[in-house]
Each structure stands twice: as structure tokens, then as C-alpha cells.
TrEMBL record, chain A:
Top-level lineage group: Eukaryota
Annotated keywords: Cytokinin signaling pathway, Kinase, Phosphoprotein, Transferase, Two-component regulatory system
Native source organism of the sequence: Rosa chinensis
Name assigned to this protein: Histidine-containing phosphotransfer protein
Domain HPt: 38-133
BP GO annotations: cytokinin-activated signaling pathway; phosphorelay signal transduction system
From TrEMBL, chain B:
Residues carrying 4-aspartylphosphate: D75
Domain Response regulatory span(s) in chain numbering: 15-142
Gene3D superfamilies (UniProt xref): 3.40.50.2300
Record-given protein name: Putative response regulator and transcription factor RR-A-type family
Keyword annotations of the record: Phosphoprotein, Transcription, Transcription regulation, Two-component regulatory system
Gene Ontology biological process terms from the UniProt entry: cytokinin-activated signaling pathway; phosphorelay signal transduction system
């Protein structure tokens, strides 16, 4: 059955997002908030995250262009961005945020800039993967996510 | 997971004021609270929260204030006034000081936690919040300090 096949693919896509470390437990928490009255909750959260975070990244990028670096300001911006990334369960993005903040605290501008590039890459990669996943999930119709003991 | 709906009488739903500068986190906390059968009002900063409570300095316009707030959940790190400063203002207010205030933060800093608890915060929770955290808070929400049937919502997590 075509639909079963799609559902299998969706499940595999979802599983790989976790096993490959793109997402963490927080994403599951969000999935658990999705139900018949809020059937697109996770996708809405993801959309909101990308809209919000694009702005944050632009702000940080502009800040990085100014020298000498205002590490305090950079750290504050990144704290916010890290928070959002954490709220959606973006594991790899969050790790880069943490690294960036450590470089800020060490006053290491080179480190910040390098990490920022990695961060943007992870951010973009996750976006593509989530978009593909949500699109597939919509085709499959409502699916059961892994049930967990409550 | 099913949220236990509290009857048809809107008055029975606890009213929670959630304060967070992140639009993402506001959306999530709102869902978490609604799932725990709470009525939710959100504010994007401490000043907005104070206005909703009718506590802002020099406030003249009270038409947008909310009534019967049973709990306030506030983020710690917010631009302008922090959650800690908001907590202090609430605890200094004769009208609002009895409202339980929960502070949430993405950073686990012991001195920060202690400071908030000393100032009268009910709890200090780490972000991101989970449904189990909110369900547990829901248990603390009683009208007269005694556990009621609402305690049922805490079972099973």
C-alpha cells in the first residue's frame, strides 16, 4: 500500500533525525503536544523557530562584522538563539551555540567566527531535513509517533 | 496523552500568566498550560506583565488588566526588567504578593536559583519546560491550599 510505504519512510526519516543527532528529546516533547486540536503544532513551532532564528543570525552576523568584537553583546544574542534552538530540540545547532558562547567568554574572535559558520551550516541543514520530513509526513496523513510510557 | 478537561465552567480553569520574551517559548508554554487545562495569558516582557496585573509604575489605564491570576510563570532572562525583578515587584505588591510565581531559566546557576527562591518564587525550573513540569505545577494550584480532585492531573507521569 502506497500510504503504508510513505508512513514507513516518514518513520525512518524521523528516526534518523534522532540517531544522527540532529534532534533531541525536546522534539519528542513537542510531538506529544500535537493532537487532533493542534495537528500541525510541531511544524508551526519549526516555522516560528526558523523565522525567529533567521533574524537572530543576521543580528549576530552584523555584530561579528564590527571590530573590536563586543563579546558581551555577542554572548547575549547567542544566549537567546541557543534558547530557541533548545526549545525546538535542535541538538547540533545547540552544540555550536554552546561552543560560540565559550569562545565569547574566552574573547576569541576567530573561534567565534569559525563556529558561527558551522552553526549556520547546521541551522540550514536541519531546516532542509525538517522541511522534507514535514512534507512527507503531510503526505502520509496522521501517524503514530513512538509511544512512550508516561 | 489526554488532557483532563475541567468541566464546562470556565471559572474552574486556573488562570496562568506566562511571561517570556521568546515568541517560540510563549507558544510552547501556552500549549503546555492549555494541555493542563489552564487558561493562559501571555506577556512578552516584565513591563507588559505588570501592566496586565495593574502594577506598572504610574499606570493610568487599567482597561487591559486581567483578573484572577492563579499563577505567574516567568522567564528569568529578559531584556529590560528580568524575571527576578518582576518577581520582586510582585512580592512587594499588597494585591499580587500571594500569587505563586515560578521562574524558569535555560541556565542552571545555583546563586540564581537561590536568589529567586529567597525572594519568594514557588519554584525554579529549567528550560525547556516539559509537560511533566507543568502538570506538577498544576498540582500546586489550589484555591485554599488543600489538595483537591485536581490532584488527579498529576498522576501517571
Amino acid at each position: 500500500m502506497e500510504r503504508n510505504n510513505i508512513r514507513r519512510q516518514v518513520a525512518l526519516m524521523r528516526q534518523s533525525l534522532f540517531t544522527q543527532g540532529y534532534l533531541d528529546e525536546q522534539f519528542v516533547q513537542l510531538e506529544e503536544l500535537q493532537d487532533d486540536t493542534n495537528p500541525n503544532f510541531v511544524e508551526e513551532i519549526a516555522t516560528l523557530y526558523y523565522r525567529d532564528s533567521c533574524r537572530s543570525l543576521q543580528t549576530i552576523e552584523k555584530s561579528l562584522e564590527k571590530t573590536p568584537h563586543d563579546f558581551n553583546k555577542l554572548d547575549n544574542h547567542m544566549h537567546q538563539f541557543k534558547g530557541s534552538s533548545s526549545s525546538i530540540g535542535a541538538k547540533k545547532v545547540k552544540a555550536e551555540c554552546q561552543q560560540f558562547r565559550e569562545y565569547c567568554r574566552a574573547g576569541n574572535g576567530e573561534g567565534c567566527m569559525r563556529t558561527f559558520q558551522l552553526l549556520k551550516k547546521e541551522h540550514a541543514t536541519l531546516k532542509k531535513k525538517l522541511e522534507a520530513y514535514f512534507q512527507m509526513a503531510r503526505q502520509a496523513g496522521p501517524i503514530e509517533t513512538a509511544s512512550r510510557p508516561k | 496523552m489526554s488532557a483532563v478537561r475541567m468541566g464546562l465552567n470556565g471559572d474552574e480553569k486556573p488562570h496562568v500568566l506566562a511571561v517570556d520574551d521568546s515568541v517560540l517559548d510563549r507558544k510552547i508554554i501556552e500549549r503546555l498550560l492549555t494541555n493542563s487545562s489552564c487558561k493562559v495569558t501571555t506577556a512578552e516582557d516584565a513591563h507588559g506583565a505588570l501592566e496586565l496585573l495593574g502594577l506598572a509604575d504610574g499606570q493610568q489605564n487599567f482597561s487591559n488588566t486581567v483578573s484572577d491570576v492563579n499563577m505567574i510563570i516567568t522567564d528569568y532572562c529578559m531584556p529590560g526588567m528580568t524575571g527576578y525583578e518582576l518577581l520582586k515587584k510582585i512580592k512587594e505588591s499588597p494585591t499580587a504578593k500571594e500569587i505563586p510565581v515560578v521562574v524558569v531559566s535555560s541556565e542552571n546557576i545555583q546563586t540564581r536559583i537561590e536568589k529567586c527562591l529567597e525572594e519568594g518564587a514557588e519554584e525554579f525550573l529549567l528550560k525547556p519546560l516539559r509537560q511533566s513540569d507543568v502538570k506538577r505545577l498544576r498540582c500546586h494550584l489550589t484555591k485554599d491550599g488543600n489538595p483537591t480532585d485536581e490532584g488527579m492531573l498529576c498522576v501517571g507521569r
